[in-house]
What we know:
Layout: E1 5-6, E2 17-18, H1 23-40, H2 46-56, H3 65-68, H4 75-96
Antiparallel strand pairs: 1-2
Helix pairs in contact: 1-4, 2-4
Amino acid sequence: MSPYLLSGTVPMPTSPYLSLSGTSMSTAVVSGSVALLLQANPSLTPNAVKAVLEYTAQIYPSYDALTEGAGFLNAYGAVQLARVSARRRMLRSERRRPTGAGNSSGATSA
Length: 110
């Protein structure tokens, strides 16, 4: 069995987690996570993507900011936050949309 496969906390017939380190490994994982963020909320700007990733990062006490940066990637939390942001944006735009579009009086015609 590969030393890079980890079992996790729930007993399973296979080891579901892969443990690798280095920027060449993290690039693919973070890029995939960003793709999921943009799928959940296509209106995110590059700065907003960065903010979501930093805000949802998991910080561990045994690491310092120079070692881990903003923290460990929390892809699930980042996608959830992107979805909430998209829903709120949609609700705000619906509230701003006038009723009876195309009719300045707001009345409907039969």
